[in-house]
Amino acid sequence: MPPTNTMTTQETEDTKTHSKDLVGKKVVSKEGKTFGSVGDLVFETSSGELIHIVMNKPSGYLEKKELEKNKEGKLLIPFSAVTAIGDFLVVAAEDIV
């Protein structure tokens, strides 16, 4: 018999994060360096996969990096660099370039 999912509906809901809850959150490195805040999110429409964080008010540190930019010139951080989401979005600085 295959294993059953023992998570309750409430536990499943507690593991989800809505995009509106991420916009405006501070983005920091694992070491605590502030990178700016989340301005928007970019996702693949066919799969729903999150691709980039569009940065709002990027720090001078990020401004110096040769990061990809969107059409409006906003810096993009690959969503794959996110290591944790809580009060902040924590990213692995070594994975953003």
Which terms summarize this structure?
alpha+beta, six-stranded mixed β-sheet, 3 helices
Quick recap:
The protein is of the alpha+beta class.
- Please report the number of helical segments: 3
Low-confidence stretches: 4-12
Structural class: alpha+beta
User: Looking across the biggest beta sheet, what order are the strands in?
Assistant: 4-3-2-1-6-5
How much strand? Answer: 25-35%
Supply Rg. Answer: 15 Å
Overall pLDDT score = 84
End-to-end Cα distance? 45 Å
Number of strands: 6
Overall outline = globular
The biggest beta sheet reads:
6 strands, mixed
Query: H/E series, N to C?
Result: HHEEEHEEE
Helix content: 10-25%
Description of the molecule:
The structure is a single chain. The chain is an alpha+beta fold and 97 residues long. Helices cover 15% and strands 32% of the residues. The chain has helices spanning 9-14, 19-22, 60-64, and strands spanning 26-29, 34-43, 50-56, 76-78, 82-85, 89-91. It has a 6-stranded mixed beta sheet with strand order 4-3-2-1-6-5. A hairpin with a 4-residue loop joins strand 1 (26-29) and strand 2.
